[in-house]
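Q: Is it fine to ask for two folds in a single conversation?
A: Yes, each is treated on its own. Send the first.
Q: Here.
A: Result:
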Amino acid sequence: GAQAVGAHTSDEAVALCLVRHPRGAMTKILLMLALALGAAGLRWPAAVPQRRATSGRAAGARLERAVGPVAVAPVEAPSVGRSSESAVDAMRGAAEAPSPFKKLMAANRAEIAVRIMRAATELNVATVAIYGYEDRFSQHRWGADQSFQLEKKDPADAAVRAYLDIEQIVALAKREGVDAIHPGYGFLSESPEFAQACSDAGITFVGPTVANLKTFSDKTTARVAAIAADVPVVPGTDEPVTTEAGARAFVEEYGLPVIIKAAMGGGGKGMRLVRDMEELGASFASASTEAEAAFGDGSVFLERYIESPRHIEVQIIGDGKGGAVHLCERDCSVQRRYQKVVEIAPAWSLDPALRNKLHEDSLRLMRSAKYLNAGTVEFLVDGEGRHYFIEVNPRIQVEHTVTEEVTGIDLVQAQMRIASGASFEEVGLVQDQIQARGIAVQCRVTTENPERNFAPDTGTLSVYRHSAGYGMRQDGIGYSGMTVTPYYDSLLVKYTARGSNWGEVIRRMTRALQEARIRGVKTNIPFLLNVLTHPEFKAGVVTTGFIDEHPELLQVTGKNWDFANVHQADQEKVMQVEKLLRYLANLAVNGHPKELGANPARLRTAPQPQVKPPRVLIPGKDDAPTAGRRPGGWRSLLLAEGPAAYAKAVREHKGLLVMDTTWRDAHQSLLATRMRTADLVKAGAATNAALSNAFSLEMWGGATFDVAMRFLHECPWQRLQRLRGGG
């Protein structure tokens, strides 16, 4: 503290600081340095360049040129004469700020509900979760201080309908003393009716105003607002289209191709690309039906389709009074079925002039709307570098994690504090101090099978082990033993990697996906590895057509990657080792599976005959010539009288001629690796006696040569010669 520093010399003060307060020692030393600089008339540096890890790869070099040096946010130096205690208080900042609310409900499910409640808990806010019956074992339920099941009005309704019941959710929140509701993304997050119901109940809606939602949740009114703000747009319908005739009228005026989009909501739901007029009717109907199921509103709108653009979005936070800041941009061009798969922040390969235009247009639009809270302005960028507004997502987004990682700003907590009335300055949202540091990449891991057109998979997670390590973050809901159901979205976990350059962050994400162990259901991890290791993606510039243009990305069976660990490089080897370990573990615990053996119910006790021990054969006696036994065996006839006599004797023989294969089978199994020639010779005479009346004796197989030399280190030809000669 200031008294301790004032009572000692500067050197003594530093020593006391290190001894008495080791955890805060470095902070106090830096503050003292700041005071000394101020007293000497020197200025505190406005920004300190970040030390960057260098990469020999071209991608890393391009990043250095594209983004330039990355700087931390400037730190205001304490004024001369200011005590170190007041300086510490200033730096302590939000750590001592009051909680924005008493109790907050996450009106959503799965990973975003968990994200919201964690952010609230850090702000010392009590949390409430809601869940449908089908979600009763979801992790987000037990991550809250309280959780309540939602009832469907009609038991036959789809599982998602419970999360769309505004009346029930608001009534529950009011009954439980909730003073704020965060809607997350999807479901009711863009519903002006929900925001209004919260307001009417005296509950703060952590999101935009009702007026903002009416403007931007409907893509047609958002388009009108963009035009009014002088933001370039793609030719499209100015109002929602509810009939096929309206869609045909637009196509006849503007031509094909067109894209149909849900007027309310996003996430790729209700989107269809139409290239042929004959496809229009079916595409319109399916888009409308999907939009109705996902958002409760089947209206759609149409736009001219831009071939293979880049998809760039700008993260905005508004204060509701005409002020807004941007938190840089994200590149979301890697998409499948119009749903984002991999997201990158910032869009490091963008031309700097284009980046500035995107920021300026986004801020102008949101400031003109007096936008409140977090939102994203989305653009398409064509091959000529021209950008077009497509929509505003008036909510937090799935990919918000990459922005948090590069800016150091907790977007969800910022949402809560802005909703509680805090100013930008109180939250720390000053535009000049918001800069991207390094690069972050997010991969969405879903329970889908890439080789079956990404069909959702269901089942029980037998293994669920996360990746971790420096620069890695995971947001998910999985656990070993969890049942993946078909009722909701297939997103299981989001991995976010952070690095100082493009090459580093791709290597880190690749390692994390290699390390992840999710078993029991199919996942898209092999597909994501295909994307991350593709030369075009590694070069840093891809378009929304990337996946469609490279169908080989969907091939995962038999896929090999260029990894040093051979058991990680081959998908089959990874699964083979784990299958064997699981089988052995199950065998040790539960015994031999009944289904692999006889059916116990069909077993019966069989009579056990009395078997007499075999009589010991005596050479010279038991192989003596008799009426049924040829002296010397059949081979002696062949040697003595030749092939003709041998063949004649065989034809004239009235009995059964038997070939014995006992020695051959033994030579290729137990005897081969356990008995040497010397041991086998000892059984030769008894064999002659036992089989003297046999037509032939087969004693060799091809494997005999191999095992004699490799296992017993004996000459197979010598063995054959000795056994034939009887010694």
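Q: Second one now.
A: Result:
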Amino acid sequence: MSDTNGASFSDGDLTELVQRFRAGVSVQDRKFRATKYKQCFVGSEAVQWLVSSGAAANESDAVNIGNAMMNAGVFHHVLRDHPFKDEMLFYRFVADEDHGGIGVSATTGQKVSWTTFLGDTFATGQREQTLQPKIKQPDLTGNAMGVPEAAMAVSPLDEYNIDLLNKVHPAQWVDPQGKSKYHMVVIGGGSAGLISAAGAAGVGARVALIEGHLLGGDCLNVGCVPSKALIACAKAAKNAKDTARMAEFGVSVSGEVSVDFEKVMQRVRRVRSSIAEADSAERYATKLGVDVYIGYAKFSSKNSVIVNGQTLTFAKAVIATGGSPQIPAVPGLHDLAKDYKDGVEGAPPILTNENVFNLTKQPKRIGVIGTGAIGLELAQSFQRLGSEVVVFGRSGTVMPKEDKDLSAIVLKSLKDDGVEFHLNSEYEGSSRKGDQAQLVIKENNMMQEFLFDAIIVAAGRAPNVSNLNLEVANVEYDPKTGIKIDDSLKTSNPNVFAIGDVSSEFKFTHVSDFMARAVIRNALFFGSEKFSSLIIPWCTYTEPELAHVGLYEKDAEAKGIEVETFEKHLADNDRAICEGDTSGVVRIHVVKGSDKIVGATIVAENAGDMISEITLAMNAGLGLGKIASVIHPYPTEADAIRACGDLYNRTRLTKPVKALFRQILKLKN
């Protein structure tokens, strides 16, 4: 290993140096001003030891060596504020701290991995065929930590999923010994919980993070990450198969284009496991200084929780337990879902986002219940990968919260891909027919029956509020809408906050992120951050994408805000014309009589990237007229945003202004 400043060691050399370094430096309790720091050493003293012992040639070399050891996770600054320096700064060996860690095998002396439990049956090397999801694992049931639940959450147990589990739910995790009192206890290890814990620890707080299932939550494991990896594969398949479009560009494709579904899903698993390190239990414990508990927390009082038999007392707590997909009340559908979950032989897959990425065999015909972001993204992806997909909804449209004429652009794209829609469905029932699932609907007073090899349910989510003993903590909640919070993210217990999907109607990872940032300030530093002040964008990652920020016109009207709307169609955008895809539009709402932006929607191939320019303008208080003066590279689709600014500026050329300009021009002549 090597440090960026040039210090380089083999693993053996580093181990020997660390042993000598630990024995040579003075480790003791130290005090700075009124604060006592236990079991630490001083940077300047360590530099002198490195030089005098011959480990370093001089002070500069010693600093480089110290930073190399620091980057290797040997020690860190007590507040994680500084690199290693030749100064009166305090550092502590990671081995002297107890934040929890992966258990060590008594026989091998190595960290316990999932392969310890799985054995040769699930060897982690490459194999010709991946394992099918329904695998019996009786050798796991004896683990007292609830490991089987985590193991059964991901399938197949190939090298990528084993790597994922080793990171986000280690097979044998040793909880730390609880501190006398934590500044913050975080319940839930998804996006909201992870950012809360890391941020609070980063400013010096004693933090406990508790997660019973998979660290990383929905986003890493069953949401953003695997879905976007799947979308990328589906887009590649679409482009390869679209010979008509290729011919327009002068490219001919000969031969058959085929999709290897097993390899598609293998890539999804590989991408997910490669990203998982950032959310790993070991990283949070050893590098971020968070006490990590793998288990389920329950409140035992207004200021304490119990996890794995330990009582943790807190000054503040953050509930970030997320949400779960719901099976709608379609007669028979719950029974089908239970049969599939229980592994009943031949039961057709009833899937949600929590298990759809476990598939290794591609269903030929898929029914999708739900016309929101999750349903449409999966529908388009599976259709492009070769399945026959039928989407069902009840609202008469897709993405009901979006402007109907804009969501219609997305609807047309999915129909062009071959997806079939029934948007005025009344669900009459569902049952098993052999190894298929039957779905019966009534649409336009006509009964229709469909048979599917799998049904994907994407019809809403419910907050995870059960089994937390919230009543004991005096935390008010509703089973359907979640934990009740005020604008500062505080619950009915002033020392308990709730963020993310468990308390917010905006169920997006990036919203959880910024709720977490706000809760750190509000909970620990008497901050006054308000959730209502956040300007929230979002995007549905179909092709084209549909992104939105701020208010819709109907919302503005409900708030008594009169707006003017400016829009630019991509049919008039030179880059879109060059790309051969002109179906999008940029639509921006401003307060009537001013250029203050209150909302915008973009439909375009990269709408999710484009919307950030408008979000930035809204956050910074920059009006639409100002955007017109921002030079954009030519040609880009983002230039359509600037063009909307031009449209606004033209409205300022009233008749009196034009008359004045004419008079000035006459004088010039």
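Q: Anything structural to flag on that second result?
A: Two points. Residues 550 and 599 are 4 Å apart (CA to CA). The first helix runs from residue 11 to 24.
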